[in-house]
Structure formats: C-alpha cells, structure tokens
Automatic annotation (TrEMBL):
Keywords: Iron, Iron-sulfur, Metal-binding. Residues 123-143 have a biased composition (Polar residues). GO terms for cellular component: cytosol; nucleus. This is Thioredoxin-like protein.
Length: 264
C-alpha cells in the first residue's frame, strides 16, 4: 500500500519530482502545524493512500509539505491557506482542493487516479529551481450552470472553515512577505511586534473569497483580522483594541507561551 512521504527540504522536493515517471499522479498535501484542520486531513489522506498499491512504476505518489517551512514550494503552487491539496501529473496541475472536506479530496483523487492525465489543461507549475509560476485549478466539470443559492451556501461554509483555520487569521492583500497594500503591511507588522502566531489568506488569489467574505463578515474592506473564529476588524480597530488593552494579543502570543513555560 502507498504511504505519505514528508518532504522537509527544497532539495528533497526537487529530487522527488525528478524521480517520478510522467504517468504518476502526485498528491501533494500542504499543511501547517498550527492549523487544526490539517491534522484531520492528514488522517484522511493516510487512509486514502493505504487504498492505493505501491506499484512499479508508481501510479500514485503521496507527499506532505509544511507550507511555511517550504514557502518557495507553497508560492509556486499558489497556496494561500491550509490544508491545501494539489494534484499533479507530468508537470501539470490537474486540480487543487482547499479546505478539509474529505469528500472533495477523495473525489478529486479518485477522478484523476483513473485518468491518463491527457484530459487536464496544460498549466505552468514549478521550475527546476522551485521558482513561482502561474497555477490555477482545472475545473472541467463545471459545464452546467450552478444554483446561485447553493453556490453561496457552499462558499459561506468554506468561509466559515477558513476563518477558523487558525486561532488568529489574517485576510490580507498579498502575503506577509509581500503585502500588496499599506494597511495589510501595517497589520502584519503589528502581529509580528506582538509575537502573534497567525494564519493568513491572500484574498487577491481567490476572488470568491475576496467578494464573499465582505458579505459573510458584514465588513467591506481589507485587511480583516479574525480571532477564534470571530471578526476583530481592520487595521484601525486592531490599533484601537491595542491602545485600550496592551495585552489584547497576549493569549495568542508566542512570547507569552514561552514565558509561561519558563515560569512553570
């Protein structure tokens, strides 16, 4: 049976890619240790992997990547939230699945495991040096109109999961390393100054989330900061909270956790 291989370095990632035959379906699971849904997804993928025999040559290859530790790989595949699954064959991205829906993950893997790989649209992925390139989801099944209400319901369910993906979630323009607006840059700086461990979502990479979260949160602008699944607000609100309470971030501060451990 197949097992999941942990990829811990860029060199290991490139070696693994180069070792795979063009016919192999590569299942890449991006995760982060702080995101609780990732632990659930790891169990789901481990169970799924066990259902596929380790053939020669490999029909499937299952790998796990820490999205933060290997940020070059994450950026190459446009990973903006975790858990995030990418299905690749012959250097082409066939499909991506964001979130922790076991049904969607199983359906995607089963669908592409049965295909020869010739039906996927050719998409650029990562080069030999791991540099970023344009990657998009290949949704060939959406040929019929979808009920707007059902689509909105599914989006809101996804948003409900996203805002709880980490105890502190920042929805911003760009990434913490490359903010695309001054407000996002300032909010990232505040989180870093207070040693807050946080997850983030680049709303510029997903227009459904960008537009839908405004209605879901009843908050029309970005960045948005969420704590424990509840909206705090934008930059002004966060500054106001800190001005009124210097310990506003204390329960989510890495510094506080370290100090507490030292005291005990």
């Amino acid at each position: 049976m197949s097992t999941i291989k942990d990829i811990t370095s860029l060199e290991q990632w490139e070696q693994h890619l180069s070792s795979l035959p063009p016919s192999t379906l590569l299942i890449v699971s991006f995760h982060a240790p702080w995101a609780a849904p990732c632990a659930q997804m790891a169990t789901v993928l481990s169970t799924l992997a066990s259902e596929y025999p380790a053939t020669e040559p490999l029909s499937t290859s299952w790998v796990s990547v820490d999205a933060e530790e290997l940020s070059d790989v994450s950026e190459a595949y446009n990973v903006t939230a975790v858990p995030f699954l990418v299905l690749v064959r012959g250097g082409q991205v066939l499909e991506t699945v964001s979130g922790s829906s076991a049904v969607k993950v199983r359906n995607a893997i089963e669908s592409h495991a049965k295909q020869s790989g010739k039906e996927g649209t050719a998409l650029e992925t990562t080069g030999a040096n791991g540099t970023a390139a344009s990657v998009q989801t290949n949704n060939t099944a959406d040929s019929t109109p979808e009920d707007p209400e059902k689509k909105k319901e599914e989006l809101f369910k996804r948003l409900g999961d996203l805002v709880k993906a980490a105890p502190v979630m920042l929805f911003m323009k760009g990434t913490p390393s490359e903010p695309k607006c001054g407000f996002s840059r300032q909010l990232v700086a505040l989180l870093r100054e207070n040693a807050v461990k946080y997850g983030f979502f680049n709303i510029l990479a997903d227009d459904d989330v960008r537009q839908g979260l405004k209605e879901f949160a009843d908050w029309p602008t970005y960045p948005q900061l969420w704590m424990d699944g509840e909206l705090v607000g934008g930059l002004d609100i966060v500054k106001e909270e800190l001005a009124n309470d210097a310990d506003f971030f204390k329960s989510h501060s890495v510094k506080s956790a370290v100090d507490g451990a030292a005291a005990s």
